[in-house]
Specification:
The chain is mainly alpha-helical. It has one domain. 74% of the residues lie in helices and 0% in strands. The longest helix has 36 residues. The termini are far apart.
């Protein structure tokens, strides 16, 4: 597997040592009397977010690695419907079978397309699988204290935004807009037992450290917002549905959180922002974060990339804004 082999053992050890040193220094800083109480609060809150999210990241990367190595996409392609709407529904539900993070969803989506799955199905999977999967559903429920109403709204919002974009892509674009031909997407999907175990472990380690660095940065950023950002500034956003939704959408894009971890950060933000804004944060962050922007721009033609970016921003904003305005009118 090309993705897994890209991680050298030297890089793995370096990241392990660096992470260990970072955590050790964090705990050491907590004991330093010179550091202010606010800094201690930021570090404590960030570490709690990281520790809560780590089990779900481990589950996600292991599931992603096992599925990407052992399950062949043509098994799913045989059942791909010809109807566009049914294809979108199937693509969204495939996240329950291929529960991968947005870091690993692109190779699976490309393979599905290469095996004969429709554009609608492949892109519905690409845009919704990071959220519509068992690991993320459980993580979201746990982060929000088993508030299943919010979990359903997150899943529904992701399906509406991702499914609508996928449906439109199927009508206005074709596989050539991936920037390469389908034949060029081909790679060897057959693995021996010994190769499979080795590639599963390598891919899991690679993806874990790739996700972990974004989690650490995002956790500290969210904690800093919670502790240091002036409440008066936050209230300006809270009282205006448009500004609050736009603010958390920008935050979701910049944070580039893994889907197994973003709910724990969103739970912190939910203390200050309304429901629709938090849901917008959770939806846009898994469709159009910084990592996906780079990934999409490298794999898709510019017209397709811009279409995904613009439509995801518009639809996510309308979704979050509509929820906040609806709640205000109801109250």
């Amino acid at each position: 597997m090309e993705y897994a082999k890209s991680m050298s053992s030297k890089k793995v050890y370096l990241m392990i040592y660096g992470s260990t040193l970072f955590i050790a220094l964090g705990f050491r800083s907590l004991q330093n009397a010179i550091i202010s109480e606010q800094v201690k609060n930021v570090v404590t809150l960030a570490l709690s977010i990281i520790l809560q999210a780590l089990p779900f990241i481990l589950i996600g990367v292991l599931a992603s690695s096992i599925i990407r190595v052992l399950i062949r996409e043509e098994w799913i392609a045989r059942f791909s419907p010809s109807n566009s709407i049914a294809g979108v529904i199937l693509g969204a539900l495939l996240g329950l079978i291929f529960p991968v993070c947005d870091c690993g969803v692109m190779p699976v989506a490309r393979s599905l397309l290469r095996k004969g799955v429709s554009m609608q199905t492949a892109f519905a999977y690409l845009l919704t699988a990071p959220v519509i999967n068992p690991t993320v559903i459980l993580a979201t429920a746990l982060a929000f204290q088993w508030n299943w109403h919010l979990v359903v709204l997150r899943l529904l919002g992701t399906f509406v935004v991702g499914g609508t974009i996928a449906l439109l892509i199927g009508y206005f674009f074709n596989p050539k807009d991936l920037g390469v031909s389908i034949n060029q997407l081909h790679h060897n999907d057959h693995h021996s037992g010994r190769q499979s175990i080795h590639e599963i472990l390598l891919h899991a380690v690679d993806e874990f450290f790739d996700i972990g660095r974004f989690l650490i940065v995002s956790a500290f950023l969210a904690s800093a917002i919670q502790v240091w950002v002036s409440k008066s500034i936050l209230f300006q956003f809270v009282n205006n549905p448009s500004l609050s939704v736009a603010a958390l959408m920008v935050l979701g894009i910049l944070m580039s959180l893994c889907s197994e971890a973003d709910a724990f950060v969103a739970r912190v933000l939910a203390n200050q922002f309304p429901l629709g804004s938090v849901l917008s944060f959770l939806v846009i962050g898994q469709i159009l974060d910084l990592r996906n922007m780079i990934l999409f721009s490298k794999n898709f033609r510019q017209s397709l990339f811009l279409f995904i970016a613009i439509m995801s921003i518009i639809l996510t904003f309308l979704w979050g804004w509509g929820i906040d305005v609806g709640l205000r009118l109801h109250l």
